[in-house]
Structure formats: C-alpha cells, structure tokens
Amino acid sequence: MSNFAKGLLLVAVVTAVVVGFIVFGDQQPEQAAETVTSQQTAVADDTDAQPQQQENKKTEQPVGDKGKADHIVISKQDLTLSLYDSEKKLICRFPVAVGKNYGNKQRSGDMKTPEGEFSVQMIQPASTWGHDFGDGKGWIPNCYGNWFIRLSTPPHKGIGIHGTHAPESIGTRATEGCIRLENKMLDSLKPMVKVGMKVTILSSDKDQAEDAKLRGDKPSEPQKQVAEQPKEQPKTDTKPESKPEAEVKPESKSSEQSTDEGELWHTIVEGDKFYDLAKQYGTTQKAVEELNPGVDPTKLQIGQKVRIK
C-alpha cells in the first residue's frame, strides 16, 4: 500500500472515531439528564400531592351561606373557631387561643375555658378597653380588638370571644378563660354573629385527662370530642363575675361589675358621665338615670358604683 493510501486510511479512521465520540458520547449525559429531571419531577409531584391529599382529608371546605349563619363551634383540641350555617355547612374557620390551664372551668380565676352548650349574650364595642394581664407589662390598651362577643356560660360570667394585642399567642393555650383570635378575623366574624346564637365549646384529650385527674378517676383512653352540657357547679364562690377572661375588667378608663344575672354595675373613674356610659353599654342616659334615682349625674364620685342595666 502506498504512503498516500495509508494516509487516506488514517484520516478515515480518525474521522470515524471523532464523529462517534460526538454522536454517541454526548447522547449518554443528555439521556441521564432527562432521566434525572424526570425523577426529580416525579418526586416533586409526589411530595406536593401527598400533603395536599392529607390536607383535603382534614380540611372542611367553607361552602356555607353567610346569610344563614347559625352556630359557632370552638374546639379546644384543634384550637379553632368554626362558624356554620343552618344546614351545618362550614362558613369560615379561624385559629384561636383558649384558657392556659387544662380542664373544664370550675371557678373564677382558674384560667380555664368552660365547655358545653352556650349562647351569645351580647356584642360589645371594646376598642377602648384595656387590661393588666399580670405579666409585668402593666396596663395594655386596646387588648381585646374592636369587639367583645360576650357569652352566656352559666354559672360562670365574663367569658367571651375577642381580639388580641398579641397575635403570636393564637394557636396556643394563653388566655385567662376567653376565646381569643386575631383582630382582623374578629372583625370579619362579628357581622355574622347575632345575640342568641348557639356556641358549642368542645373539650380536648388533655382537658378530659385533667378533669379525670381532679376527680380521682383511673387513667382511661381519651374520649372523642363531644359537646357536653354544662354541669351545675356547687355554689362555693358567690362573688359575681362578668369581667372578660374571668378576671378582666372591660374598661377604657372605667370598670363594669355584675352583681346578679341580668344586672350590670359600673365603677366610676375620673371623667365618667352618664351619657358616655350609656353609649358604651348600649343603653340610654335616661335609662341609667332611672336606675340610679339617688345619684346626681353632675356629681359622680370616683369609686362610686352605678347601675347600668
């Protein structure tokens, strides 16, 4: 074979090797990349799908009619407040904070949220109210949001649904007995709530365990959540209670105090006038004056108690 022929043959071999490397050598990483991408996509899809499926199992879709708002259910197990319409369809659900101590409420000041079937007693504007929570931070103004939805929870008084100055506490056991939610959620809930609306407060496993311990019962399996009728409590503490969160006085500059079911009394502080009190408590100046025939409205004394309702 001539040198010229050998040269042509060598060029042909080198060319074939280079072309083969380009064609077949590049094909493997590309296929691998497609495989990895496909696997990553599959994993991502599966990861996204699983929580979504779990969420769908747990989440009740809000399809209820706001115009037919009928009753409220508060779960101490899930720390939620749910509003249902008359056809038992969910309208909305909000996270809440409840009493910091476990168990059904037994007495004033025990930091427990009562359990059972209750109702809305009144809806009060609370943007000017304040309270000292005893945590060293002193007097906190506007700590109840814009509204205090007072509940009738016999034999206990002063329990309600309200806003908060501490949104980070929502979803925890943090209150003195009331039900607390974020202010913007309270504002959206209030228009759908009516006086007399049914309110059910459900217990939790830990609340039931605490009650069993106090009764001296032997440990048992946690019970399912059920709405319990409030049990009549022995009258060991006759001191009336109408202050929010069991020990809270709903005040801006003043305080209110109930003595009997249906009666509402107010302790005068500096600057109080019958006109302002009537506006604050949703009544009229004339009605307040008639309930206090021996009181001169122009000479109210600090610390003096007057009847509002």
Could you outline the blueprint of secondary structure elements for this entry?
Blueprint: H1 3-58, E1 69-75, E2 80-85, E3 90-95, E4 98-99, E5 116-125, E6 130-132, E7 139-141, E8 147-152, E9 160-162, E10 173-175, E11 179-180, H2 183-189, E12 198-202, H3 205-215, E13 255-257, E14 265-267, H4 274-280, H5 285-291, E15 305-307
Parallel strand pairs: 1-12, 4-10, 9-11
Antiparallel strand pairs: 1-2, 2-3, 5-8, 5-12, 6-7, 8-9, 13-14, 14-15
The rounded distance between the terminal residues' Cα atoms is 124 Å
- The shape, in one word, is elongated
Q: Low-confidence parts lasting 5 or more residues at pLDDT below 50?
A: 17-57, 238-242, 246-254, 256-261
Looking at CATH, the homologous superfamily of the largest domain is L,D-transpeptidase catalytic domain-like
Structural class estimated from helices and strands: alpha+beta
In angstroms, what is the radius of gyration?
A: 33 Å
Quickly count the domains.
Answer: 3
User: What is the helix/strand order?
Assistant: HEEEEEEEEEEEHEHEEHHE
* Beta-strand residue percentage: 15-25%
The top-level CATH class of the largest domain is Mainly Beta
- How are strands sequenced across the largest beta sheet? 3-2-1-12-5-8-9-11
Give the biggest beta sheet: 8 strands, mixed
Number of DSSP E strands = 15
CATH topology of the largest domain: L,D-transpeptidase catalytic domain-like
Mean pLDDT rating: 76
Helix content: 25-40%
Q: CATH architecture of the largest domain, please?
A: Beta Barrel
